[in-house]
Write a structure and sequence with these properties.
The chain is of the alpha+beta class. The chain has a single domain, classed as NADH Oxidase. Helix content is about 40%, strand content about 15%. A four-stranded antiparallel beta sheet has the order 1-2-4-3, with helices on both faces. Helix 1 crosses helix 6, helix 2 crosses helix 6 and helix 3 crosses helix 7. The protein is globular and about 45 Å long. The protein starts with 5 loop residues before the first helix and ends in a 5-residue tail after the last helix. The structure holds flavin mononucleotide.
């Protein structure tokens, strides 16, 4: 199995939203998890608790449960709130631009709510992939503290970069965070854990137009202040 230069991995990674119907071998899944386990964390607490799911029926059951809940008019059913409640600029503008770029590429009209919802539901079908990591944190670790959330964020990136290193593609998901309680129920996760996010991993369908999407970043000086 080949590995790659770290800068190539960081710059080469992009969220992929269509996968081949092919399972990642368990051995590779474990190698990705072993690499991600090297993520630094405060006091080396290693706050991530991961469910690495490759069971087709379980993935389908999770997706079915979320979609049924949404279609029945159910509200979000989450442990943690990922997205800001108040979208201020310039972040709001960036969010809108990123969404608009994807819909333009896919030739979806911005008023075509049905197609847009279908595209969102693809999240709960794991974009056709067969492997998903669900990352949880113990509630006590984030009771009045944010540090473990930072650690779990770094863990997310390392999962994705390790997968990239093994020639696989990924997409991180906050769409699952929003239904964390439903997911826990289907998977039988104890109540003292909160779902932070999931990461889909698999083999990119290179013929899919959606996978050519690579939203740009703002210029460096929009996010960095050099004090020299
Ligand atoms: C925490 C987090 C949650 C995300 N949730 C979703 C999601 O639910 N569905 C999705 O298609 N993309 C999701 N994304 C992907 C972002 O839209 C994507 O990272 C961003 O637009 C930059 O594009 P890139 O990953 O291709 O570089 C998420 C990304 C992060 C970091």
């Amino acid at each position: 199995m080949e590995t790659m230069n770290v800068i190539d991995a960081i710059k080469g990674r992009a969220s992929k939203r269509k996968y081949l119907e092919k399972k990642v071998p368990q051995e590779t899944i474990e190698k990705i998890l072993e690499a991600a386990a090297m993520t630094p964390s405060g006091a080396n607490m290693q706050p991530w608790t991961v469910y690495a799911v490759s069971n087709d029926k379980l993935l389908k059951d999770i997706g079915d449960a979320i979609i049924a809940h949404i279609e029945a008019g159910g509200d979000v059913d989450q442990h943690v709130q990922y997205y800001p409640l108040n979208w201020i600029n310039p972040y709001k503008k960036r969010r809108i631009l990123t969404g608009a770029g994807l819909y333009k590429l896919m030739e979806v009209d911005r008023h075509d709510d049905a197609t847009r919802q279908q595209m969102w539901f693809d999240n709960y079908r794991w974009f056709g992939a067969q492997n998903v990591f669900f990352v949880y944190v113990n509630n006590e670790l984030i009771n009045g503290a944010q540090g473990p959330l930072m650690d779990c964020g770094a863990y997310m990136q390392n999962l994705m970069l390790a997968a990239e290193g093994y020639g696989l593609a990924t997409v991180p998901q906050g769409s699952t965070t929003e239904y964390g309680k439903i997911i826990s129920k289907v998977m039988g996760v104890p109540d003292d854990f909160s779902l932070l996010y999931s990461v889909v991993v698999g083999y990119e369908d290179k013929s899919a137009r959606i996978n050519s999407y690579q939203p740009k970043r703002v210029k460096l000086t929009d996010t960095v202040t050099f004090l020299d």
